[in-house]
Amino acid sequence: MLGGVESRNVSPVFVGRADELAVLTDALGRAAGREPQALLIGGEAGVGKTRLTEEFLGEAARSGAVVAVGGCVEIGAEGLPFAPFSTALRALHRLLPGELAAAGAGQEDELARILPELGDTPRGPHDEESTARLFELTARMLERLAADRTVVLVLEDLHWADTSTRHLLSYLFRTLTSGRLVLVATYRADDVHRRHPLRPLLAELDRLRTVQRIELPRFNRAEVRRQLAGILAQEPDEAFVDSVFDRSDGNAFFVEELAACRESGCRAGLTESLRDLLLVRVEVLPDDAQRVVRIVAEGGSTVEYPLLLAVAGLSEDELIEALRAAVGANILLATTDGDGYRFRHSLVREAVSDDLLPGERSRVNRRYAEALEADDTLIRAAERVIRLASYWYYANDPAKALPAVLAASVAARLRHAYSEQLRLLERALDLWESTPEEVRETLRPADYTEVYPPCGCDPATTPLQRLDLLAEAAVAARFGGEREHALKITKTALRLLEEEGDPLRAAWFWTERSRLVSSLARGDGWEELARAQELVKGLPPSQVHAEVLVRAAGWGMLHSPGPDNLDAAERAAAYARMIGAEEIELNARITVGALLTDSGDAERGLAEMHAVKERATRLGLGMLAGRAHINLSSQLEGMGRSREAVELAEQGAHLVRKSRLLDSEAWISGNMAESLYSLGRWDEAAEAALRTLRVGQSAAPRGSASARLSYLALARGELTEAASQLAAAHAHFGTHDVQPQHRIPLFRLAVGIAAGEGRIAAVRAETAAAIDYGFPLGQHRYAWPLLLAAASAEADARGLPVADAGREAALAALLAAARTLAAPVPVWVAHAAFLRAELLRAEARDTVADWVEVEQAVRPLERPYLLARARHRLAEAMLAAGGDREPATALLREAYTTAGQLGARRLREDLSLLAQRARLPLTAADTPAAGTPATKPAPDTDPVEALGLTSRERDVLRLVAAGHSNRRIAEELFISPKTASVHVSNILAKLGVAGRGEAAALAHRLRLFGPVRTAAGAPPRRV
Questions:
Q1: I want to staple 576 with a disulfide (CB 3.0 to 4.6 A). Which of 250, 354, 584, 652 is the partner?
Q2: Over the range 855-876, which residues count as b (16 or more CB within 10 Å of their CB) and which as e?
Q3: Confidence class of residue 938 from pLDDT cuts 50, 70 and 90?
């Protein structure tokens, strides 16, 4: 090895960049205050990014920070997966071995995918959440490592970054929230053309306020002059400064090269091309040194000394002399860890590599590949497979390249670098036809693929097929988030299968296509599943057949639950059991359990899902255990057992969080939010819903979380926020694959928002659309709240002129829909009673007895919000009926207290207004002293005055409630439209509502004008 050789063509004086360095050091100071910092440094090649970074790292080290640098590696068309992170973490592992081990404790197997020094990389699990789990673990490890010390992580040459590195960097920039961490990435701006893969990432990061972007401009003439003075150790003559400035155009690296050429007498001034300028300094080296430089240029960003010794064809003494010459000329540098060599600047490497002849390039790559095959200790084991694949590919030897590329794809999969796996598989597909058949015949699916099940053939003895690679590529694309690409691959495979006539493989691809179509919102996936089912009919038992049956049953459970789907799920479970596919069987049994519960056999269904949960947990099947917790907590909530649902969801969240199953955690948190809402723990419900939005990777759980937040906002009287969250839920769910469990709650929210805004026509339209949509088996849990919300809106709108037309039909439709719904458990029996009472209130025919029945049905349910609403209506009915006021007062106080604890502003206001009208004390402070007779309201008490409205505002409100415009109000009251507008604004402010519709709805809901009800005792209409 070689060290300590210097050549002075780098300025010892740091020129310019004072502002940029100040930004970096300021970030260092903020990070010391536990505020993570993220910065991007961009600029053209040679402009001085590395020099600025080095100066900053020196400042950081002097301040006591721990610094680590990793560079993206350019190897052919693809980079090493996570290369800069692996390098930087390796440096941290050397500097802080104990601290890094503690930060990653318990997750060494997973983190070894990025830092192999932590342990052996496990083979699985592989799914769409694998990469996100790895990223989350990496982020948390860095936060823990930087909890007690400032850590500076620099990733260089992001323009060469592999896809996985770009995705991880984006994840860290978006999610790091604590720790004394500074994360800096540099990139070559002139390389980032319109279609460069880094460009979308830069655009995304520009939108993050937490990321600072530094763009380095070229030097001006004064800065070039200072740089030359530092290099030459004397003041340069002005003519030379002009010449260098003109030729370099202010590029710092070219300034150095021009200065070096003048010093060495290489007459660079005679050349017109800057590329020639870079090469001319190589060409003056001794022959052996030139040869070594060309070999290093083709070896990658860094070449290890043992590998270089094996490839160069020189004795060790000759190699060291050649390296001494190249290092002395400042063309090569020893790496910081002292185990290899790299070019001082990538521009020189690119120029040298481009200057190689085609035959020369392939020969050098072959020698690299042969050296690695002969001795696998020449480089790090984690890099060997990937680099060998690249060397053989560029050696133009398909027979050697195909197996090497396939082996590299397996290595990429093990690291959850699915995008790199996909690129390598596509390279293998390109090599397929040019590879000799006798070589292809030796390849086995067992060695290179794992996603397509054996299906009657032995993967250890059956030759690998092109379709095996397409299957692997389709799944790699899906796992890597490239679903559009995956869809195209399945289309290619199915086209091939039309010629080959392999129904089992075709069924597998159609099943995969169903999943993709659904996730891309191109459809519900049923057409593709139906094709798969047709293809497997009559075929011998197989894992593919079992998977098709289970997915079809699962689809039916979500989209069209009913007895037929229960039969299908039970057949799928039995089929999977018959062929010994336990994982598929357990998946089917979860579906069976959920459908049993929906069909009314609750205890059997819950027992089945509990059994699967225990078995999957015991076998370490995290995804299945997570799905069991998701469905169990959902079914318990549907049965009114919300407290049990929360406890089970907490257990499930803990389980899946350990395995970093992010979508599973999102679903469980969403279910928990629903149950917490039911229990009146609204702040906790909001936290759970927000957690779902944070960790959810798929659209559906995020849509459910937005719906939960909309429910909370609606109950709290925040109509604008409720509408915003409803729109977000619609956007997440899309329009192509709307499941009843998602769609019906959105109808209910739309009804509630329209009712709150006083838009009774919209209430009826949404309700009619929901009834037309239908309420399949098990959806009564969503239908009862929807119908209740619509009936309450009709009751509140009684007397509203715009509500008269169509009222009878709307009430009849609600009654008819309610008669179709099951009420298998007390919570839905209570809803049925509540709905019946509201329908009677809508016709002014409800009695105290009706509301007593509702209150008694709701009281034992642990549904505080529902109970407060029931007590509100019961108190209202008692006051309207006359008699003893003390029970009504007690009910109002209880409901008012509950509404205040929940933050249910609208309900609290309604209760307060009712109490004001009745002159009832809502708090102990308002209660008359002992011995003082209670004050009864005067017979002519004006309820409008209790709201603080003047007599003129009362007249205006009456006309607003009748639906009149400001101009019509002005005509009726003989005032100007402007005065009418002022009165309306004052009324809205006093009532605390956002618009005329809400004011009208409030006036009618509180019966401010006209009689409250007809004579009691009218025969009730029963549901």
A1: 584
A2: bebbeebbbbbbbbbbbbbbbb
A3: very low
pLDDT of 61 above 80: yes
Between vectors from CA 142 to CA 136 and to CA 148, what angle results, nearest 5°? 140
For residue range 379-413, list pLDDT tens digits in order. Answer: 988 889 999 999 999 999 999 999 999 999 999 99
HSE-up of residue 708 (Cα within 13 Å, Cβ side): 32
**Which residues, in sequence order, are CB contacts of 495 under 8 Å at separation 6+?**
none
Smallest CA-to-CA distance from 496 within 506, 486, 507, 487 is with: 506
Question: Taking the mean position of all CA atoms in its chain, how far away is CA 505?
Answer: 32
DSSP one-letter string for 319-372: HHHHHHHHHHTTSEEE-TTSSEEEESSHHHHHHHHHTS-HHHHHHHHHHHHHHH
Task: Give, as one character, the DSSP assignment of residue 156.
Answer: E
Beta partners for 723? Answer: none
Please give the structure tokens belonging to residue 496: 């091939």
52 token code pair: 């600025």
Give the length of the chain. Answer: 1023
Q: How far apart are CA 55 and CA 908, in angstroms?
A: 62
Containing H/E element for 182?
A: strand 181-188
Paired strand residues for 40: 185, 213
Beta strands in 176-243 (DSSP E): 181-188, 211-215
Q: Is residue 42 within 8 Å of residue 36, measured between CB atoms? A: no
- Distance of alpha carbon 818 from the chain centroid: 38
Q: Are 282 and 275 a contacting pair, CB within 8 Å?
A: no
Q: Which residues pair with 333 in a beta bridge?
A: 342
User: Phi and psi for 67 in degrees, rounded to 5?
Assistant: -115, 145
State whether the Cα torsion 103-107-108-113 is positive or negative. Answer: negative
Name the helix (H) or strand (E) containing 55.
helix 49-62
Tens-digit pLDDT profile for residues 154-177:
999 888 888 888 989 988 888 888
